[in-house]
Each structure stands twice: as structure tokens, then as C-alpha cells.
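Show me a record, fold above all:
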Amino acid sequence: MPDLDEEGGWLLTLDGTPQSYVDLADPGHLEFEYTQRLGHFADTLAAEGQGLAVLHLGGGALTLPRYLAATRPGSRQRVAEADGPLVELIREVLPWPEPDITVTVGDAREVLATTAPASLDLVIADVFQGSRTPAHLTSTEFVQQAAAVLRPGGSYAANLADSAPLDFARAQAATVRAVFAHSCLIAEPSVLRGRRYGNLLLIGSQAPLPVEPLARRLAGDPFPARLVEGAELRRLIGAAVPVGDAQARRSPPPPAGAFSIG
């Protein structure tokens, strides 16, 4: 259930895991570090204020869609959320701007399959069942489906969580790299070193990514994150190989007492 905190924002917690934070008075406010990083990436994709066509796989309380509606008016956004009762609760308590944002109740991969080819600027995959990413949203076939709905120059961004030895994150990085010509991984240094559980953001595109402006934004955050690409990303991936549907597994559970947000 969403809870109103002392700052006046709404915190959505599901199965004991914090999922979303929304400030209705300021949709440009991104509370969680991983949403800040997604916001930074979206900020670098086009000229300031330019609208984007976006598919959000995983809705939560619609933090990122609200952010983009505020910072890029005219953006065409669709959200896929499998939890119908959650959608109705959010509609009642935290209504979103319509028709700027449309919400479809359904499985993320099934909604992706109904999306027109080459129609989107950005696909964001941020799907958690409790604190774990479902297996069918971790495979090469799934990432290929996401790539197919992107316009030339469009980007795919996936939020996931892992801890030492980062086996899941390495395999996911290999999977994204197998589909896209350009890719990068973003996380706090302590997560990359395997010192703690946390979020990692994987990004892929067939066009060069805005790594320099993005890295500058990440470095200026209260909890700075590192951007890993090129040879450094290949070293991080190591011997990990892309994951197909037949081998796909859920992301690992968080250790006891850990947040699923980074």
C-alpha cells in the first residue's frame, strides 16, 4: 500500500520492498537513486523539452512517466503493469495526467509484442515481482523484441538488482551487448565491486550513446554512480554469455535486510 511520508510524498511498498516514490506537487522530484539515473539518461536523449515516445514495462506508481510528462511535455507514453488492483489503487490515490500517459494492465512481454515496430524512442524495463525480475524479461529474445520496437537511434534501458559475485548482472550485460551495437552499465562503485546489493542500469542502442554528458550527470549526484562501457564493460562481463529463453532465471533475491532500490 502507498504510505504518505513526512515530506508529503507517497511511498509505494509491495511485499515489504520499496517500489516507487511520488511527489504530486513536484513530478520532477526523483527520490530513489536508480530513478535519478533513469531520469538523467532520458534527459540526455534529445533536446531539452522535446517529446519522446516511450514504453514503460513495469508501472509502480508511475514515477518516471510523471517525470517525463513534466520535463518533456507532449511525450507519448504507455505503461504496462501486470498488477491490475495496483493500477486501480494508483488511479484512485495518485491519478496520473491523461491522455499524456496511458496504462495497460498486462504482462510486460505480451504488451511489448503488441507494440508497432520502429515506433518508440525509449523502452524502459523496470519490472519486479516483489524484489526480483521475472525470468521471461531477462532473455536475448526479450531484448530483441525491445530492440524491434525502437526507432533508429532509440534506446533500451533495464533496471535490475544484484550483489557479489554479480553473475546475474554480468549475464544481463552480455545479453544486452549481444543485441545492441552500443551498451553501457551504470551502478554505484560499491555495487560494481560486489560490496553490497544494489541496482544496476543497463542501456543499449544501435546508435552511439550519450556517455559523456550522462557520466557528468551521474558524477554530480549525492550518491555518484559510475558508467562502464567499451573495454571496461567487456572485462566486467568476462566469461558470461547471453541468456536465452531456455536458460533464463529470475534475478537473485536480496540479502536479508537489503532494499531492492540502490
